[in-house]
Design brief:
It contains 10 helices and 9 strands. The protein has 253 residues and is of the alpha/beta class. The chain has 2 domains: 156 residues, TPP-binding domain (Rossmann fold, 3-Layer(aba) Sandwich); 87 residues, SIR2/SIRT2 'Small Domain'. It has a 6-stranded parallel sheet, sandwiched between helices. The mean pLDDT is 93. The chain binds nicotinamide-adenine-dinucleotide. Nicotinamide-adenine-dinucleotide binds next to loops.
């Protein structure tokens, strides 16, 4: 295992165009459950599809209910060793951007600037009107819910929705385009904590591979890219990333 981490560290330290792609698995060590592991979110809730949200008040109430339950856990979550290690690499000038499927905002909280975090599935700390597009805070929506409005509307009459991509909802065009460009032009692509099955996010490692990038995966369970990658580490992300960041720092001294 030490050899694998050294190989990854050396690639990062070379200082080419380094991209990290993260999924729910990087945040489980912050106490946020992932989707597909046992005990994950889909074991507890039935997802509300986008067309249901837009066509039924009952579905909107169910959706807000789920979100409020998730926020209570999220509010307590802090960046863990893995997030902090990536922030360290960024501060060393060795990480171009993080592409993430996560909606928890923990990369930004670890110190990586917002414009270097490409959120493919939105951010659950924001709320957006589905008609006028105005962005507002979770705190404001929560207050209204607590005061007896279980599915709040915008002042324009549109439906307010946490700013995350639901099943059946279009992906954010600009983010997907930017993530595709970065993946297709990088030298090093590291996947952390993703099953790599949700599309089009899961295509990013393929773009990187086709571009001739070095592909590494740190993930506890199998992914469709395990055979295609150069280094596979099946260990917990936090300690692994911390070790890699320390190795990189040493190499750059
Ligand atoms: P996923 O649940 O499909 O896969 C998570 C992967 O991470 C699994 O393969 C699991 O084995 C691995 N994993 C779990 N803990 C790990 C750890 N400590 N170290 C290394 N690997 C670990 O998640 P996904 O691939 O990101 O895709 C599903 C969707 O989940 C995304 O659309 C995302 O928006 C959403 N999601 C986000 C959050 C979050 O923001 N924290 C949480 C749950 C789900």
């Amino acid at each position: 295992m030490q050899d694998k981490l050294e190989t990854i560290a050396k690639k990062i330290a070379q200082g080419g165009r380094n991209i990290v792609f993260t999924g729910a698995g990087i945040s489980t060590e912050s106490g946020i459950p992932d989707f597909r592991s046992q005990g994950g979110i889909w074991d507890q809730y039935r997802p509300v599809y986008f067309d249901e949200f837009m066509s039924s008040r009952d579905a909107r109430i169910r959706y807000w209910d789920q979100k409020i339950a998730m926020w209570d856990g999220l509010e307590k979550a802090r960046p863990n060793l893995g997030h902090m290690a990536l922030a360290k690499l960024f501060n060393l000038g060795l990480l171009d951007a993080v592409i993430t499927q996560n909606i928890d905002g923990l990369h930004q909280e670890s110190g990586i600037p917002g414009d270097k975090v490409i959120e493919l599935h939105g951010n659950t700390r924001r709320v957006r009107c589905m008609t006028c597009g105005e962005v507002s805070t979770v705190a404001a929506a929560k207050k209204r819910i607590e005061h007896g409005d279980p599915a709040p509307d915008c002042h324009c009459g549109g439906y307010l929705k946490p700013d995350t991509i639901s099943f059946g909802q279009a992906m954010p065009h600009a983010e997907v385009e930017r993530a595709t460009e970065l993946s297709a032009s990088c030298d090093f692509f590291l996947v952390v904590g993703s099953t790599l099955v949700v599309h089009p996010a899961a295509l990013m490692p393929e773009y990187a591979r086709r571009a001739g990038a070095f592909l590494a995966i740190v993930n506890l369970s199998e992914t469709p890219y395990d055979k295609a990658c150069h280094v596979l580490v099946r260990e917990k992300a936090g300690p692994v990333l911390e070790t890699i960041a320390d190795m990189v720092e040493e190499l750059r001294k």
